[in-house]
Amino acid sequence: MLSILFRMRNNPMSPVQNTAICPDGSPVKLHVHEAIGAAKAVVQINPATAVTERMYFAFAQFLTENGFTVITYNYRGVGRDGPHPKDVKAGFTSWADNDVEAVTQWVSEHYPSLAHLAVGHSFGGHAIGLSASSRKLHAAVTICSHAGCLRFIKPGMERLKVSVLLKIIGPLTAKLFGYVPGRRLGLGEDIPANVMLEWSRWTSLRNYFFDDPSVNAAARFSRPSLPILALGFNDDPWAPAQAIDLMMGHLTKCTVERRQLGPEDSEGFSIGHLGFFRHRHADKLWPIVVAWLNTQLPENQYET
Fold this sequence. Notes:
The chain has an eight-stranded mixed β-sheet with strand order 1-2-4-3-5-6-9-10, sandwiched between helices. The chain has a two-stranded antiparallel sheet with strand order 7-8. With about 300 residues, the protein is an alpha/beta fold. It is about 35% helix and about 20% strand. The protein has a single domain (about 1-155, about 215-295), classed as Alpha/Beta hydrolase fold, catalytic domain (Rossmann fold, 3-Layer(aba) Sandwich). Helix 3 packs across helix 4 (about 125-130) and helix 5 (about 155-175) packs antiparallel against helix 7. The longest helix is centred in the middle third of the chain and has 22 residues, at about 155-175. The protein contains ten helices and ten strands.
């Protein structure tokens, strides 16, 4: 870990900001983390709900050191450098159809000679199934991408806590304030109201958004055709193996490789739903993703 922190402090490269334009005309800011040396592929990181791109910067740095150019971004209404979530009407499906769509198109247009890869964290993995632009991806890794049904959360107290948050407090604040003050609720970042209202509704459905006809999720998930590495962690109460398997089972044209890992695979460090991207997993878990991505590259695929 100390070696990685040393390299980060002494790396003069800083991510460069750019902007992608959504199909609905809205801008999405993104950051380009250029590969150190010749780039062999470009990786876009689709974030989780209520998580900003900053959480992925250390992992992005690790990827750049391994020859990948990396794109990070926030969904509209998440983070403090964009529009206030109260002013954003987006829900999950509009994030997929606009924000993710715009970034995926931008990457393909700006790096046409490189293999286009993705890492999707939680909802960021859902977006690979939901977004039409995923046809442009060469391969993808999903991290804790699960069907967020309450029935899958086995620890009783954790299920109660999540139920109160997602079924009562979250929807109530969404309707009262026009957004959800996630930072004050311990949910992460503030998020648009529609995101919470969709999330709350889907948690009670047996098959999550696959049971919501307005999403048309099964048809959407049947479109991508690419290799996927789907990682889950045994100490993640929000995304147990069954919930990940349900989600991945709908990617009917994809070749999905499933792996379940745990603290024993990372020197005893806890992982959970958010922990994979923390520095303490750089030596054990991050190389697993890099090694898999390397196996998906066309031979001699370098930027010219």
